[in-house]
């Protein structure tokens, strides 16, 4: 029996979840689906500069799982760009950050931004 999937912690849902090629003809085309947890891995690693190890700690999953999620997301994004396909972010195994943590670790979480600043100020005074 396979091991149950662990929900991946996601800071927040993307503000924009659908991307269309600029020269889009109105022909129905296959849509490339990137899951929310794949989006979060790309956001943390490529946009926030996390290592895969830091990303795994933040998302509460194994580093090898982050590597698989990240590789899958990059392949999907590359396919959408190269083939000019629409891209949509939806679904996946994730849970949204609940805002109950004292320190989020990413600095970009809207729910924690105030708490992160407070934590940083405390560390500076110690």
Approximately how much helix is present in the residues? Answer: 40-55%
Number of helices: 4
**First and last CA, distance:** 50 Å
Q: Which oligomeric form is depicted?
A: single chain
Biggest pleated-sheet summary: 3 strands, mixed
Overall mean pLDDT stands at 81
**Largest sheet: spatial strand order:** 2-4-3
Assign an overall shape.
Answer: elongated
- Helix/strand class: alpha/beta
**How many DSSP-defined strands?**
5
Unreliable segments (pLDDT under 50, ≥5 consecutive)? 115-121
* Strand residue content: 5-15%
Describe this structure in words.
A 3-stranded mixed beta sheet has the order 2-4-3. Strands 1-5 form a two-stranded parallel ribbon. It has 4 helices and 5 strands, in the order βββαααββα. The longest helix has 21 residues, at about 65-85. It is α/β, with parallel strands linked by helices and about 130 residues long.
């Amino acid at each position: 029996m396979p091991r149950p999937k662990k929900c991946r912690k996601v800071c927040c849902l993307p503000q924009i979840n659908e991307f269309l090629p600029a020269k889009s003809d109105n022909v129905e085309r296959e849509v490339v689906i990137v899951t929310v947890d794949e989006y979060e891995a790309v956001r943390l690693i490529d946009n926030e500069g996390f290592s895969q190890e830091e990303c795994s700690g933040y998302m509460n999953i194994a580093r090898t799982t982050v590597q698989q999620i990240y590789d899958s997301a990059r392949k999907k994004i590359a396919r959408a760009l190269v083939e000019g396909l629409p891209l949509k972010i939806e679904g996946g195994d994730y849970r949204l950050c609940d805002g109950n943590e004292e320190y989020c670790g990413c600095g970009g979480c809207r729910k924690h931004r105030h708490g992160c600043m407070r934590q940083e100020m405390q560390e500076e005074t110690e």
